[in-house]
Amino acid sequence: MLLSGGLDSATVLAIARERGHRCIALSFDYGQRHRVELNAARRIAKALGATEHRVLDMPIGQFGHSALTDPGIAVPEAGGAGIPVTYVPARNTVFLACALGLAEVAGSSDIFIGVNAVDYSGYPDCRPEFIAAFERMANLATKAAVEGRPLRIHAPLIDLTKADIIRRGMALGVDYAMTVSCYQPDDTGAACGRCDACRFRREGFEQAGVSDPTRYRQSAGQ
């Protein structure tokens, strides 16, 4: 289970647990500009019953060219055309590859990921065709699959709106106050209230008719 510390991956962990899976949560220290999401991932893994939580050092952020890893690139506070500068090159490909290795060693046939292709920022590695292509590759690349134990990539949020995701999580008892979605939170985890991630999250709670538990910085005007 790929666990970022955000709203979506927390919901997916709850879904996987509801389906009866024993979950190894896998997070990454990839050079992101803030560490609060890793702290959130630790809280979520414990609260939602992961049997184990691993954090891997995977410094793909040193490649640069993303506002999430390069302090010299500003996080945009308004939507724009094209793939945004918050896209991290190859992030989901690398993360899924690591999860694939862990799954094979652990004897698991299932990988869960919280990608979403509806209320998202236009990242190419969040699309259904990417997930399907990676699953095909995984079943060509692994000893387990060749020996008759195919692997599945589960993306249960792929076609849900943010409001639908929140409703699903609330029904499963997810405490979204534990999660961090903001692209530029402060050191306490308080959200900026202005980036794309904050906007999608806030609108999701509004559309779901659920009180938003997010802590915003005073400067965000919330």
Summarize the structure.
By secondary structure, this protein is mainly α.
What this model shows, in words?
Helix content is 36%, strand content 8%. With 222 residues, it is mainly alpha-helical. The chain has a single domain (7-181), classed as 3-Layer(aba) Sandwich (Rossmann fold). The strands form 2 sheets. Strands 1-2 form a two-stranded parallel sheet. A two-stranded parallel ribbon has the order 3-4. The radius of gyration is 17 Å and the shape is globular.
CATH architecture: 3-Layer(aba) Sandwich
Structural Rg: 17 Å
Main beta-sheet strand count, sense and barrel state:
2 strands, parallel
Number of domains: 1
Helical proportion?
25-40%
Q: What CATH first level would be assigned?
A: Alpha Beta
In DSSP terms (H or I, runs of 4 or more residues), the helix count works out at 7
Order of helices and strands: HEHEHEHHEHH
Q: Regions with pLDDT < 50 over 5+ consecutive residues? A: none
Report the mean per-residue pLDDT as an integer: 93
CATH fold title: Rossmann fold
Return the structural class.
mainly alpha
Q: What are the SSEs and their pairings?
A:
Elements: H1 7-18, E1 24-29, H2 36-47, E2 52-57, H3 91-106, E3 110-112, H4 128-141, H5 143-146, E4 152-154, H6 162-171, H7 196-208
Parallel strand pairs: 1-2, 3-4
Helix pairs in contact: 1-6, 6-7
